[in-house]
Amino acid sequence: MIQSSLKTFQPILIGGTRALTTIDPHRQSSKQPILVSQSSTLQKKINNYALESNNQPTIGMLMKESRRRDKHKLVRSCHFMHREFLVRIAKVISHLQNLPYIILTNEDIKRVLDLYMYAFSDMYDQPKIRNLGDVDAFNAALSGLLDDLQDILLLLSKGIHDSQQHFKGEDFHHTVKKTMDYIVINRLCNRILARHHLSMHIERDGFMSVVNTELSLKKVIRRNAAFAANVCSNVYMDTLPEVLIDGHAETKVAFIPNIIDYVLREVLKNSFRATVEEHMHKVDKPPIICTICNAPDHWVIRVSDRGTGMSQSVAKQIQNYCYTSFKPEEEYSHAFGDLVSQSSDTGSSLAGFGVGIPVSKAYINFVKGSLEVQTMPGIGTDVYIKVPQLTEMLDEVRI
Predict the structure, then answer these.
(1) Which of 10, 68, 198, 228 is most buried by a 10 A CB count?
(2) What pTM was computed for the model?
């Protein structure tokens, strides 16, 4: 279920082109609005920027840059971010516009497209950054852009999910996978770059750019397990499985917290749900066991549950976009999906639309790692999250 806080948009004229403003989500219009996507002038600008190459700094470059702070660099960083976001947003719009027409007729997909086009228009119209006095204004605009686009994954996932009825089986997965993967990673990289740029103004202990150099995997597991447990306790009104952490439990790594937070939240959410539903009304439920392994060139988190497990065909399908085991007719599953969607920050848990595992896999693949699901039908499921050590990805992962 879409969060009630999502914005509904109605076009208004700004500078000769159509843009979007917030209106009452319950108010109905008798006319078909002229959207920003119908502006030929804006479309030409987007087409031109979409043809340009975007810069892709490595994680190592960002960390190195974060050590050198001077006033002139802040202005240069704003110039870089301004052009970079225009190019990257234009490329996303191009990918969206190349989707089959039947998908583009979906209302949520239309809203995604117009949100991106409005973001491009707003960024394009930003005043030229000449001095430090202009930096704060640009940073405020950049932060606003991130806020405006924070629900993109939720809208996109719902729109893609609702569009699959027009396709047959695997045809749909192959149709949308390339576009979904591109938008998911583009969005992730944009937010990493923006956080890096904004971090140049504030020093945080333990951080170099967006990398937490002393990230405790035990603490990461605990905070995301607490989120999943809170969701379950509000839905099932039943006892919950305990989460145990073993292996190299005191491991600290250097990594981008937002990525592993997203992935663990999705994996643990699934483990809690499977365990609770399989052992409903039992006081003593089998624990979810998170095992940490810290090796010289990589680290691994294995999440093991003793829910019902899956068939091999389902285990394969859950890695496809829009496959979901949530069924509207199942009372608990429906409630779980609604609550997790409403509890998420920036659309980080998208229960019911079949994107949690595919997005998690895309994130981990992006950092040259792997996410593997091993399941035993009738027994349970193990998920292995393997990530290279920072030294292995400094020059390999480009943002």
Answers:
(1) 228
(2) 0.82
